[in-house]
Structures are given as structure tokens and as C-alpha cells.
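Reopening this ticket.

The earlier resolution said the output was attached, but the attachment link was broken on my side. Pasting everything inline this time so it's all in one place.
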Amino acid sequence: MKDVFVHPSAEVEEGAIVGKGTRIWRFSHVMRGAVLGEGCVLSQGCFVAEGVRVGHRCRIQNNVSLYTGVELEDDVFVGPSAVFTNVKRPRAAHPRKPAFERTRVETGATIGANATVVAGITIGRHAFVAAGAVVTKNVPPFALVEGAPARVVGWICACGECLVREEERPAGVVCGRCGVGLGV
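Inline output:
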């Protein structure tokens, strides 16, 4: 793996694909069949299962496990100890491997620290999931969600600036910070 940093305590199994410029830190484990794009950071204590797809320039903070079925598009940020599930009703005595559900996090989205994302969810592009939120249904693009269960409480620009704190998505709002706003 040329042009990739893997800490000596990390394990990257043969058959994993790791993009140029990606850094994999202490005690992380990337299984065969996982794909990490270019320029990613996989922080301390992370796990990436077989079949997981991570886009370019993603930042996955400490103690995050990405299980089979999880897909992160480009420029996704996942905060420390965020949780992804891949089965809605797990049972130890009744394996659910054939029932793994696809969970997709679209380009530019952020998932805050200690948030939980239930299997089968799509988090829209540039959406922002607040720390500690429990996501049980799809999150629209540019939505700011918080709570348990997570609900839309506002709208956020691609640059991260909070634009409007209300549930109904406004039309024509322009960001005072970057000049773009919703819908890029």
C-alpha cells in the first residue's frame, strides 16, 4: 500500500483496498473486501467490515465501527463513538447475515459524536446529525437533526453554517458565510 500510513498497531487485511494518502491510526482494523477512498483518516480504535465502502476525504473519528452494509460517500465526517447498525432486529440465536441492510451517508454529511444510525437509513448530502441523536428514519439533504428519535430542527449549508432553525425547508436562503446556501 504505497502512499498510505498504517500505524504499527493497526491491522489492514490482505484484500482491503486503501486509497492514496489515507491514514489508519492505532488499534484500527480494516477487513478484506473493505474499500477506503483517497485522503481518508481512520482514527484510533475503528473497525471497517468486509463490504463497507468509504469515499474520498472521509474523517472517521475514534471508536467508530462501520459494519457490512454501511456506505459513506465523499467528504463525510463521523464523530467519535458514533454507532451504525446493520440489522433492525438482531438475535444471537438467529443469525441475520442475509438480512444486513444498506445504510448510506451521502456526500458532505456530518454525524456527531455518540449518534446512533439505525440500519437501512439514508442520510442526505450535507445533512448534519447532532451529537447523541438517534436516527430512525431518512434524513433529507441539508437537514439539521437532533434528539431521540432524531427530528429536523433546522437547515444547514454545505459549509456547515446553520441557516434556519425550523422544520419546513425554506426556498432561496443564501448563506451569509459562503454565499451559497441550500441546494448546492
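Reporter confirms the inline version is readable. Residues 5-164 form a domain with the UDP N-Acetylglucosamine Acyltransferase; domain 1 fold (CATH 2.160.10.10). The chain has one domain: 5-164.
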